[in-house]
């Protein structure tokens, strides 16, 4: 199991929030036992990046809506 202080090098470039999500996802995949560590890391990094983009998009949309409401 990986932690915020012990994680694969492939997650090093992720920002801390995205890395935490990737660690969570990778650990879940490993517990399920369907794939090996390398594939778990690859899949979790890709999914965490998608998650971060979507979260950013939702946040941007909410900010834009709030700005229009304030006008």
Automatic annotation (TrEMBL):
Protein name from the UniProt record: DUF2188 domain-containing protein
Organism name: Spirosoma rhododendri
């Amino acid at each position: 199991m990986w932690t915020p202080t012990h994680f694969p090098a492939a997650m090093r470039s992720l920002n801390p929030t995205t890395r935490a999500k990737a660690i969570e996802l990778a650990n879940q995949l490993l517990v399920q036992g369907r794939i090996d560590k390398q594939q778990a890391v690859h899949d979790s990094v890709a999914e965490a990046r998608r998650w971060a983009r979507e979260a950013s998009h939702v946040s941007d949309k909410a900010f834009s809506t709030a700005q229009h409401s304030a006008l």
